[in-house]
């Protein structure tokens, strides 16, 4: 079976966020345990599996995402990587646990995802979370249900970039993960806010560029900055930019992708 590794939210290799992509030939998914084993073997933040749907279905493809440890309900970078692999001009529709999602590719190769905006629910200050992050939190909100993250704003961009959290403590304190964010320090840098994302509870210590986190970051920063179209920079070691546009209860996430590895998975599919 063919497997690709695609770097998402970047226009150059070895940056952005790598995802595994397996396009299945059949009309159903393999056994969950088999997909989880493959995702653990690939050992990237997410590996995505998809199979075609029949004509007349609500979507073109059924799509699922797995971290090395668990299946997740929403993933942006692996969806963008999948759209890149399909190389489908125009719009393709995916049936997922988070509803029907679309990816539209323009002539330049820019891919725009249409995702549900995460509802933001204020949280009381949690001294344990601040201690695990090693930073004072200005505000914190819950971003569930699809993402089940805590979004926390800190004082400045320097604080975001210098974080060295206690990952064991974070894994015990959060659902899927925690998004840490701040306003961009330099208005001329080409981005409006920065973030980092830690998800040790689901087997991802730090995710390089997290599309799904931007479904919460978009409404959060849109309210504070007074604009619906923004650019976020995820300040991981690899780094990557996500263009966001808030459209009511939906968020458009845009970026490029690059295939770095194209090979064969040398194991048989298991259906049980």
TrEMBL record:
Q: Does the keyword Cell inner membrane apply?
A: no
Instruction: Identify which residues the record assigns to the active site.
Output: 46
Instruction: Kindly indicate whether the keyword Transport belongs to this entry.
Output: no
Instruction: List the InterPro entries.
Output: Phenazine_PhzF-like
Any Pfam family: PhzC-PhzF
Top-level taxon of origin: Bacteria
- UniProt keywords, alphabetically: Isomerase
Name the residues that span the membrane. Answer: none
What SUPFAM superfamilies has UniProt attached to this entry?
Diaminopimelate epimerase-like
Listed under GO cellular component are: cytoplasm
The GO terms describing molecular function are: isomerase activity
PANTHER family cross-referenced by the UniProt entry: PHENAZINE BIOSYNTHESIS PROTEIN, PHENAZINE BIOSYNTHESIS-LIKE DOMAIN-CONTAINING PROTEIN
- Return the similarity comment: Belongs to the PhzF family.
* Protein's recorded name: Oxidoreductase
Q: Which organism is it from?
A: Actinoplanes awajinensis subsp. mycoplanecinus
């Amino acid at each position: 079976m063919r497997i690709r590794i695609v770097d998402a939210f970047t226009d150059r290799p070895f940056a952005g966020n790598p995802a595994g992509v397996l396009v299945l030939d059949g009309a159903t998914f393999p056994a969950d345990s088999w997909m989880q084993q493959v995702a653990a073997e690939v050992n990237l933040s997410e590996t995505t599996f998809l199979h075609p749907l029949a004509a007349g279905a609500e979507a073109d493809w059924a799509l699922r995402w797995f971290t090395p440890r668990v299946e997740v309900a929403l993933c942006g970078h692996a969806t963008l990587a999948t759209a890149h692999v399909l190389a489908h001009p125009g719009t393709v529709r995916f049936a997922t646990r988070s509803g029907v999602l679309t990816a539209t590719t323009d002539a330049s190769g820019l891919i725009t995802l249409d995702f549900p905006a995460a509802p933001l629910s204020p949280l009381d200050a949690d001294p344990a979370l601040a201690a695990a992050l090693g930073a004072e939190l200005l505000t914190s909100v819950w971003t569930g249900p699809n993402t089940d993250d805590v979004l926390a704003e800190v004082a400045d961009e320097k604080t975001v970039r210098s974080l060295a959290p206690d990952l064991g403590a974070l894994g015990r304190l959060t659902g899927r993960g925690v998004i840490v964010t701040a306003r961009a320090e330099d208005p001329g840098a080409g981005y409006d806010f920065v973030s980092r994302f830690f998800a040790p509870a689901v087997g991802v210590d730090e995710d390089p560029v997290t599309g799904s986190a931007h479904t919460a970051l978009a409404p959060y920063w849109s309210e504070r900055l007074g604009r619906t179209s923004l650019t976020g920079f995820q300040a991981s070691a690899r780094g990557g930019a996500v263009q966001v546009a808030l459209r009511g209860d939906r968020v458009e996430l845009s970026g490029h992708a690059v295939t770095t590895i194209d090979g064969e998975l040398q194991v048989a599919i298991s259906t049980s």
